[in-house]
């Protein structure tokens, strides 16, 4: 009789021993110990502020721990910088984009290793090699010589991923890599992750998307308030149990309530800007959540920016509250005065005053309420208003005096949401409102959006997370190749029908 033998586990590629890190007033990590095996995807989950990104930054050399030890291939490992970590075979795709907008895609990918010929940068080589890398990720529509500033956030995220994948590494940290990606782009990324696993690369996968984690991870480690809570085999634990370990409580349902829409609050007619937005028309009612789906680059974000006058449109009109006269919206200031709010896709570049305190970021769009005397801000009124909305959204911070740049990505997102709640606009456009937000906070945002709709607000939500849109929306509009391909009422959509509509414009163009 043959004896069953268990193959020995490979030695850990990376070992973390009792790592701790504190910032003024905040203990980010408290004696965290983990092992990372070659050829495994180890998911790191937890609420915003749990310490996930801090741990990743320590491993990749961006931050130094206060105490503890790291071993890489059994040898002491303490990178002095990110380039030092890269040299030792440790790479990271960060949650916040780290690209130079004034350079091309190829220049960003090869920034620290430009090939030269006769003393000059060999652009033919970097463009050719970048094109190969992009095609490997399915990005056939992005040219290497295109400026980074001209790309959407999702496309920039894929370029950042392409940069890291183009480098040889043994340990790869992915911090919210799919936050701005659609299902199709996520599938392409997962294909590359499986390739790296087969080559023995150890991958730390940080994400708030539980379905993705169950799909790609081998093991899951839960952090809460900077502390290690548990490590489980991904196949042996349910999503509900992971969430319970993360938040320490049960969460409610995210499903949209049955609502009766009111009068039309926003009507868009034949909005156009080049080939990016092509004759888009739709309307949103008071008391309704209209979701916008579509592939990366489909024109979703660009349409919202035209409504808000953040970009100049070539044609089309915006009508408000049943008026037959187009609204005079020529700038974002005009849009805000007309009662329209836009939570931007890129919070870091377009949404926040990062060095400023939380209170200033929240009260920014309604300064008259905290500055009763022109030119003089009442600190007491500003702090009271900011504290109220920061508390409503459970912003994790020492106080509203803390600089926004010191907050986690999810808490930065909450500050922007708090800003528009404070302004009390009638029409709220949320572009990726839960990007980088933990699962507990997501449910808080879902309930908040539902409550706002119940109060009669007209809400537009753009999201790359199709499950999210299907849970919270009354109707879902689908963009494809710059056009509005379809609008589905609740109860008449399926995931397949939405994806078919999202691909329709590209299939027609290929015929």
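Q: What amino acid sequence fits the structure above?
A:
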């Amino acid at each position: 009789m043959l004896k069953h033998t268990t193959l020995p586990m490979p030695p850990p590629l990376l070992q973390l021993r009792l790592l701790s890190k504190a910032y003024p007033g905040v203990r980010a990590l408290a004696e965290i110990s983990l092992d990372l095996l070659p050829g495994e995807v180890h998911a790191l989950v937890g609420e915003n502020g749990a310490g996930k990104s801090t741990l990743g930054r320590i491993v990749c050399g961006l931050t130094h721990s206060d105490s503890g030890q790291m071993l890489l291939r059994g040898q002491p490992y303490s990178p002095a910088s990110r380039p030092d970590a890269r040299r030792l075979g440790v790479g990271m795709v960060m949650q916040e984009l780290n690209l130079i907008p004034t350079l091309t895609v190829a220049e960003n990918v090869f920034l620290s290793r430009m090939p030269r010929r006769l003393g000059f940068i060999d652009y033919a080589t970097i463009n050719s090699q970048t094109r190969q890398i992009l095609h490997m990720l399915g990005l056939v529509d992005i040219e290497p010589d295109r400026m980074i500033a001209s790309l959407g956030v999702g496309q920039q995220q894929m370029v950042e991923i392409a940069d890291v994948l183009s480098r040889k590494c043994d340990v790869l940290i992915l911090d919210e890599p799919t936050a701005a990606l659609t299902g199709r782009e996520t599938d392409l990324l997962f294909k590359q992750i499986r390739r790296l696993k087969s080559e023995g690369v150890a991958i730390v996968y940080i994400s708030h998307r539980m379905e993705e984690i169950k799909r790609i991870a081998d093991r899951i480690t839960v952090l809460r308030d900077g502390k290690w809570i548990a490590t489980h085999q991904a196949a042996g634990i349910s999503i509900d149990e992971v969430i319970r370990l993360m938040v320490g409580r049960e969460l409610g349902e995210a499903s949209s309530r049955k609502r009766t829409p009111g009068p039309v609050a926003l009507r868009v007619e034949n909005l156009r800007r080049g080939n990016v937005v092509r004759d888009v028309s739709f309307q949103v009612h008071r008391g309704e959540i209209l979701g916008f789906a579509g592939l990366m680059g489909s024109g979703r974000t660009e349409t919202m920016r035209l409504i808000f006058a953040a970009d100049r449109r070539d044609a089309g009109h915006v009508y408000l509250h049943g008026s037959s006269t187009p609204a005079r919206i020529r700038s974002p200031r005009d849009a805000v005065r007309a009662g329209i709010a836009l939570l931007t896709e890129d919070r870091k570049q377009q949404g926040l005053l990062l060095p400023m305190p939380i209170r200033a970021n929240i009260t920014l769009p309604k300064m008259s309420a905290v500055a009763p005397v022109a030119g003089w801000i009442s600190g007491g009124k500003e702090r009271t208003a900011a504290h109220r909305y920061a508390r409503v959204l459970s912003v994790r911070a020492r106080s509203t005096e803390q600089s926004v740049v010191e907050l986690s990505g999810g808490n930065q997102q909450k500050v922007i949401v708090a800003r528009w709640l404070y302004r009390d606009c009638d029409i709220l456009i949320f572009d990726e409102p839960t990007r980088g937000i933990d699962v507990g906070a997501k449910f808080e945002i879902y309930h908040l959006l539902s409550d706002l709709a119940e109060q009669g607000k007209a809400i537009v939500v753009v999201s790359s997370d199709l499950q999210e849109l299907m849970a919270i929306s009354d109707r879902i509009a689908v963009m494809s190749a710059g056009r509005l391909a379809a609008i589905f009422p609740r109860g008449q959509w399926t995931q397949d029908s939405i994806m078919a509509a999202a691909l329709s414009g590209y299939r027609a163009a290929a015929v």
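Q: And what stands out in the fold?
A: Residues 364 and 419 are 7 Å apart (CA to CA).
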